[in-house]
Amino acid sequence: MADSNNPVTRSGAGILARLLVVAMVLTVGAGVVWLVKALLVPPVVSAEIPALEVQAAQVEPGSVVPAGVDAGAPPAQQPQPQAGAGGADPLRAWAERLAGPTGVPARALMAYGNAELVVRSTTPKCRLSWATLAGIGRIESNHGRYGGATLGEDGRPSKPIIGVPLDGSPGVKAISDTDGGQFDGDSQVDRAVGPMQFIPSTWKRWASDANLDGRGDPQQIDDAALAAGRYLCANGRDMGSAAGWWAGVFSYNNSVPYGQKVFGLADGYARTASQ
Predict the structure, then answer these.
(1) Can you tell me whether residue 174 is helix, strand or coil?
(2) Does residue 14 sit in helix, strand or coil?
């Protein structure tokens, strides 16, 4: 999850043409969240930690970007009724082709690819890559599959993904409650939420409605991936440069091993897609 010292937290597809229309008003609906009874009481946090399964790449921070900033880019598509809809969908075909080789669920790839397409059109100088979002998504929640969850066709995990209490325990930042438990089910302290692990206060700022259902939902992977992309590209950042890429990832989680793990994953995903 993103660094708790920054706006996203540390724990931690719709079609291009129609998303461009709403890309600059993505914070509308930020206060509306997937209402699930399970969120009323924080669930038991799994001992599984996706990041521990990933090996850090032996690369010096700030020295280089992952392979293929432009390699294996997802195809642009024509407007569709809803993110992830069936039918002749170039983005879906691209995601299904890469799912096996990359080990990333096709539905998650659609969200990462769609986020790249939108950000490239709204903030072209950022040069955001779907592979970077996929690297972060793997570290944060194993692409929406944290704690035994499965990622549904609607882009939501089978059970809400809620991080550990940010209560100042050893190795954990202390963040008092900022949402009254609206997003994380905890009215005492904040917890990171969703596939991309946003803390509630950050979600309120960067909330995105990528699937155009009228609400920004941190548990919905299209919304979460686009919010993460916008966050990484904040303040004119160029994610295609070495300095910009590392600064963006460190803004998500200010940890060298974290950045090296995201680098290795993003590099591997991009190289696989270009083969």
Answers:
(1) strand
(2) coil
CB 243, CB 65: distance < 8 Å:
no
Residue 176: count other Cβ atoms within 10 Å of its Cβ. 11
**Quick count: other Cβ atoms within 10 Å of Cβ 257?**
13
Instruction: Give the DSSP letter string of 222-253.
Output: HHHHHHHHHHHTGGG--TTSHHHHHHHHHHH-
Q: What is the largest CA-CA distance in the chain?
A: 50
Question: Shortest CA distance to 223 belongs to which of 176, 125, 157?
Answer: 157
Distance CA 168, CA 56 (A): 26
Q: Say if residues 272 and 98 touch (Cβ distance below 8 Å).
A: yes
pLDDT of amino acid 36: 35
* Region class of 203: left (phi > 0), else alpha (psi between -120 and 50), else beta: alpha
How many Cα neighbours within 13 Å face the side chain of 152?
Answer: 8
DSSP 151: B
Residues 6+ apart with CB under 8 A from 1: 8, 9, 10, 11, 12, 140, 163, 192, 196, 197, 198, 199, 252, 253
User: pLDDT tens digit string along 163-176?
Assistant: 898 988 887 889 98
Neighbours of 201 (CB within 10 A): 18
**18-36 confidence digits (pLDDT tens):** 333 333 333 333 333 333 3
Amino acid (one-letter) located at 172 = V
Taking alpha carbons only, the member of 96, 112, 105 closest to residue 262 is 112
Distance CA 9, CA 139 (A): 13
Tens digit of each residue's pLDDT (9 = 90 or more) over 96-126: 999 999 999 999 999 999 999 999 999 999 9
Contact criterion met (CB below 8 Å) for 166 and 190: yes
Q: Which two three-digit tokens encode residue 117?
A: 């397409």
Question: Token pair for residue 42?
Answer: 């924080």
